[in-house]
## 1
Amino acid sequence: MILIDGKKEAAKLREELKQEVLGLKNNFKKVPGLTVILIGEMAPSQIYVRNKEKSAREVGLKSEVIKYPESIEEKIVLEKIKELNKDDTVSGILVQLPLPKHIDKQKVIETISPHKDVDGLHPMNVGNLSSGYQGSIPCTPLGCYLLIKNVEPNLSGKKAVMIGRSNLNGKAMAQLLLQEDCTVTITHSKTKNLKAECLAADIIVAAVGITELVKGDWVKKDAIVIDVGINKTEKGIVGDVAFDEVSKVAKALTPVPGGVGPMTIACLLKNTIECFKRTQK
Ligand code: GUN
């Protein structure tokens, strides 16, 4: 079984990005900038944002975090985004999700310039991805895609099953694999006989947030299994895949932690650099 080392792959990608930033600095006399907006005090979001900021600095990007209290008015956040849209030193804008209930997520996402939307969540980028046009691709699916391609460069004709249909994961992942000529099934909480769907899959991407949902007898021999889950349990952080059981049957599997997570952040940096390059052309 191939244990997919997301930490190692992410480090490799960050090193490539670092070299690319040096080149851009030489060419344009400036570096790409990432601005993250963090609202509230949720512990997981704070940890994610700290890691994003640290990684951005490490590859040489300009990095800024704007923090607002949970009670901040929506209007102030939208005004700040509009200001960042006009700021030439800001290449990428990310508003950390989830947002407090009184703030309209759709309004926030649609206010971010699609050219600075490093999450790939703006409807224009969602449309670009589903049309196969250029644009930002959500970081986690992009990271999963790179890990899968590393194990199996030719995905043509493979049957891929997404578990979960979120905008950030399942739906975008499905589009990426469709572009690789996979036959894609998107499953969700109302899917009948999820086990049978998984057993038919050459590739499984689990992103539902249910601890160890995917069991050993759900997985075909030689399938590639990507675990996006981050579930807090008494045993610590555990994925959506029963690791010990599945590792006995799968061809390749990502661990949690150390699989998809580090790639998500590296892909955020990649997206920031891509946004910068597209505006310099
Ligand atoms: N919260 C958890 N994952 C993400 C992500 O990829 N982007 C944003 N904006 N918020 C998140």
## 2
Amino acid sequence: MTRWRFAAATDTGLVRDANEDALSVDATLAIVADGMGGHAAGEVASSLAVEVITRQFHENETVDGLYAAVETANLAVLTDAVANPERFGMGTTIIAIALTEDAAGIVSPTLVNVGDSRVYQLRDGALRQLSDDHSVAEEWVRMGRLTPEEAAVHPRRHQLTRVLGMDDVVEIDVVSVVAQPGDRLLLCSDGLSNELTPEQLVQLASPPMPLEDAVDKLVAAAREAGGRDNITVVLVEFDEVVATMTPVKKTVSTAPPAIAAPRTTRRRSSRFTWRVAIAVLVLIGVAAGFVAIMHWYAYSTYYLADDSGSIAVYQGQPNGVLWFSPHKVLDTTFPSAHLLPSDQRLLAATISEPSLNSALNYASYLNQLWHSSRSVAVASTTTTTTTTATTTTIATTTTKAKG
Ligand code: MG
């Protein structure tokens, strides 16, 4: 059996008008919450979260029950803020240690954390922070961007990266705590940890200082150091500890709220459908544009080619483009053989023309060239014959004269 004793205190401090911290501690659960938000909203957020977690955890004192209780508290704060616009933007940190029962029936401490409230372990005069701060500066320390010393004075050390009540999904650190009899756990809001050094915490919170005296001295010391924020302290000491059979260390992200889930699913489904539809339309548009350009290019020209012995005019690219093959537009009826040899070779390789008219004109021109060449050849033969006859006559005449 794991058991603890406890003491707790909370104080408004010296600067704030109200105490926005909240706490609860009993035989199996210790919680500290640090609320934020104007017009008393911070008080509502922290007290509501503590109330919901306490009630729900005691209905199911397991790790899952603890996690679910924090999830419910998150939605409770969020729902309250939505229902009460004057509390819009409120939120709260939460740090809790619970004695949870595992499947084997063993009860052991489990930590849950959202925000920058802390839990320290005090053992043998040493102090160890068990929780991670969910602040910008501390996240940067874990990323290696800042040293702990730089983070301690960084202007974004108070800017939180996780808070209950801000979103319907929240990440929760869930960690099994390895404890032994005599260990003390100190849960506190930043009103304590910002005011006191680790050395002061060890000095004031460690045994043999009685628990009640320790919490009083811690609060008093924080006030003395300035008391610039609300101060909340819960101190527990383990009398008996049994190690858990199933230690846990994880960060879990809550699911969207059950009531909103169908709407969210529909919205995501709808958004998905629209995205797909738009993507499909864009793809169809691109494909149609591509096909149109290819069609235009494929049939934007004409060419002359031999078709079974006559000159034909084709529309298209001689070798085709994609699946657009050229097709015959008309037959000029000019025999392919009625071209000059050089033009016949050109025709065999196809002769491109920009339009149907120019193709027809060129076919006609080539045919005329052939006819012209034929006329010249006939005329040339006739002239040669005449010249020969004349020469003969002259020769004959000459012969006669000599005779
Ligand atoms: Mg605070």
